[in-house]
Each structure stands twice: as C-alpha cells, then as structure tokens.
Amino acid sequence: MRRYGKHTDEDDVRVRPSRRGSRPRTHRRPKHEDAAEGFVVTVDRGRFTCLVEDRVVTAMKARELGRKSVVVGDRVAVVGDLSGDKDTLARIVRIEDRSSTLRRTADDDDPFERVVVANADQLAIVTALADPEPRPRLIDRCLVAAYDAGLDPLLILTKADLAPAEPLLETYAPLGIRHVVTTAEEFGGDPAAVARVRELLVDRVTAFVGHSGVGKTTLVNTLVPGRRRATGEVNVVTGRGRHTTVSALALPLPGAPGWVIDTPGVRSFGLHHVQPSRVIHAFPDLEPGTADCPRACSHDEPDCALDTWVAEGHAEPARLASLRRLLASRERAD
Predict the structure, then answer these.
(1) What is the helix (H) or strand (E) element at residue 280, kind and residue range?
(2) Cα torsion at 144, 148, 149, 155 (round to 10°)?
(3) Cα-based angle 127, 155, 326 (whole degrees, multiple of 5)
(4) Most CB atoms within 10 A, among 46, 88, 217, 318?
C-alpha cells in the first residue's frame, strides 16, 4: 500500500534520524591553538587538578587522547572552563613532550609499566635508619630507576637519632650521591635542618619516594607547611609503615622556585622496563670501558671488559662493584 501520491515532495518524506547523527565523519582533529598551558598537580579517579596560571582547575582527559596517561608533573594543554570555580570542568586536549619519565613495575616479572611522575629532574630517596629498618635493596632499585630516567638522585636518611648513618653512607659513597642526614627532633622545630634539605630542592622538580613509615610525608609537610598530608605510624607487629599517602601530589616550594612531589609509599619497585645498557650511562668513568665488551654484555660476566678497564687504573674498583650491585638488584625470572 502506497503511503504517498505520485508527486511526492522531499519535505513529505519522513526519514528516521540516525543514532550517530548526520554530521559526516572526519579524521581531522581540532588543533586547539588557543588552549592554555597547565601543570598537573594531582590525579584522583579520572579527574586531574591542574594549575593554570594562578588558578586551580579541575579537568578531565579529552576523548582524542585515547589511552595516553596523564600523570602528576605533566605539562598539558587545557580548554573549556578555566575559571577554577566550583563545579566547573575543563578538558585536557594535549600532553606536551616530557623531559623525563620515572617509571616502575609492580615486580620484575610484570610487563605493565606505571608512570610515577613526569618532568622531574631529581629523585629524593627517603629511608629511615631504624623503625623501620633500612632496605638497601629498595634503595638500589630506586637508584637504577633514577639513572634510567635521567634524574639526579638525592639520598635523605631520617631518624638518625635511632641509629648511626655511617654504615649506610659507606655503601653508597662510591656513587657520589648527595645526601642529607636528619633526626625526628630536628624536623620537629629546627629551621637549620629544614634549610639543609630545602637548599637542595631550589630550582628543581623533586619527586620523593620511599617505603611506608620512613617519614617521607612528614618531611614534605615540614618543607611545605601550608599543605599538611596525613601521616601514619609504623606497625609494631610487622615493623612496616602503614600506607597513608594514596596519590601523588605536587606542591610548590614556599618562597623559592621549585616543586616537591610526594608519592605514595612503595613496598616494591619493579624494574622490568629497565635495560642494563642504559644504567651504565650513569657511570661516565666506566662507560668507555664497555667498548670492548661482548655483544649484549650484562657487565657481570667473565668476559666483561670492565674488569680490564678497572685493572688498568681507569676507574676505582668500588665504582664497578657499585654498578654490579645495582644491576644485580634488577634480577628477574626470564
């Protein structure tokens, strides 16, 4: 049965609208040339808090970014409502090139990389000398991750009033790592102790890492007193700290240029993503000696040319021992 006559007009024909709309598809994406520059200071369940000029803006990731991850420290391009008012939401449309990327995996068998911080230039490894006991293996792993990412390591030893710092410092002396030794009493009210740490953070973007209970967040609260984060006590049964910091947070260093990034406490630092050939770059006195190494040399085997290089006096034996200790911390089951 015909529903229309012989002379139907186009306006008389009813067309069912498409669920996808009538807009033609295109692969062209807007360039967002008018986007504002933002700095990601924290991430919480798919919402990104960004600093845009002097305003704190909440944003979400634009669809065109796909699976690209946005992490604390990223410099991003933001569009939309940039007023920073309550209940407003902007969009992150572009992630600028990163100068550095600190990564870790859950363990050495996990191929999934987790980006901890972007665009940092210094890694502060915080460890307690007692309560909980220091974990040199974890320190070694953090050092490997720092060298792999191109970050300058800084060793901060806390709770020196409970145990001496010399034995641990002797272990890392051949690496020439800058270090600061502090006590709980000093950071309770000694401005000089705060100044000793603070002067190493000026003009730097510093990421703080360490396992739970070492006083990392307490240290950050002292350095940035305006933004206090929750802290916890060490579990008296296990001797380990309790997780209180659950997300990374970037804080501006008061009264001086620089950023402090507090990260959640870690109990493991997997290095599945790190290639041993990249770690050697952090040892410029040893790197020339690898020219005669066998192909794919692990630098810890009988034919390694570094043994001859050190024996000829080009570098200190302690440096080679430190390199091999760090590489050994990256053991994984193949």
Answers:
(1) none
(2) 30
(3) 90
(4) 217
